[in-house]
Amino acid sequence: MTAYQLSLADYSEPITTAPASLLPKTALAIAAKGVGMNFQSRSERYQALKSVDLELKSGKIQLLMGPSGSGKTTLLSILAGILTPTEGSVRLLGQEITGMSRSQLARFRLENIGFIFQGFNLFPALTALENIEVALTVKGVRKNVAAKQARSLLAQVGLTEKANQLPRDLSGGQKQRVAIARALGGDPKLIMADEPTAALDSQNGHAVIELLHRLAKEQNRTVLMVTHDARIMDFADSVIQLEDGMLKQMVS
Ligand SMILES: Nc1ncnc2c1ncn2[C@@H]1O[C@H](COP(=O)(O)OP(=O)(O)OP(=O)(O)O)[C@@H](O)[C@H]1O
Asked: Which intervals hold domain ABC transporter (predicted)?
């Protein structure tokens, strides 16, 4: 189980935040200062991140790249409020999240962050539409409203005609588009993706990247993505390189 799977906490207060489209384009969506992470296992201490500073503006697509073990997932988890750093602070959408309680963090994530995973994480026994509906009801949307919203989200990713298909009858790219539609429930301003194209062939990978690009540029969402996929670099506003837990460079 990845750290992200912990993020869909059973928290059912209604969504109250403003739509992503209302955020000013220049606002800082993510700001990390002096972020460090030490993992303690038995007698050993491992420093996975060292003094990471970064600032990401809203409406941008940022890639988090670097060799295996360099700290990408750890950093994404910290920036998503899933892991608490041992040093430093994180502000998301102008709010300091580092001192929040677990339930405050769960609520913040639910209201503001859409998660996308390499393995799609769809419920195999639910149709494409039901997968989205379920996520909406977890976010506190009433069932009859959720059904309507789920249809509209599915239309946004161009899959209206696949509404009643089970995940096993969809291609990898279609599954990922359902997962993206699900992530858009509740209109999150931040989208955090962990290797979203790793399991996809070139054509499907391209469709997913274009969709994420559209969500950032047309709807002013901030997309932060861990990836090894060099194809995405052309669509990104900047690339953050991590090496041995340290920020090596930001390519704009
Ligand atoms: N819970 C943990 N306990 C101990 N060490 C951990 C823990 N989580 C991660 N690490 C270590 O921290 C380092 C960074 O891990 P991380 O998963 O962030 O790397 P990554 O860049 O995402 O790697 P990959 O590309 O292989 O997914 C690794 O050496 C890893 O073994």
From this structure: 30-251
